[in-house]
Amino acid sequence: LQRGEALAERRCRDFTASGEFRLQSARVEPGEWICRPEGGGVNCAVDATAICALEQRELVETETCAGPTDRTPATG
Fold first, then answer.
1. 69 within some domain
2. 7: alpha, beta or left, given left = phi > 0 and alpha = psi -120 to 50?
3. 70 CA to centre of own chain
4. Domain total for the chain?
């Protein structure tokens, strides 16, 4: 599962490439283990899911209008 954590981190980081998302965390959720006899031992693999926690960036536009116009007569 240790290699899976690194793979999940890389896969989740792909979401940040556009700049729209920021990665908060990545983890692996193990699923079904598949084990087969191989070369006098056992070779196992796991079907796992990468779980990504992301923040979505949001662009907020604001418009600031000028205050009341100063209508004091000019002296001169």
1. no
2. alpha
3. 50
4. 1
- Token output for 36: 């087969």
Question: Is 40 within the bounds of a domain?
Answer: yes
Query: Which pLDDT tens digits describe the chain residue by residue (76 residues)?
Result: 788 899 999 999 999 999 999 999 999 999 999 999 999 999 999 899 999 999 998 888 888 887 666 666 666 5
Helix (H, G, I), strand (E, B) or coil at 12: helix
- Residue 29 located in a structural domain: yes
| Residue-range definition of the domain harbouring residue 45 | 2-56
Length of the chain in residues, anyone?
76
Structure tokens at 73: 């007569």
Helix residue spans in the chain (DSSP H): 2-13
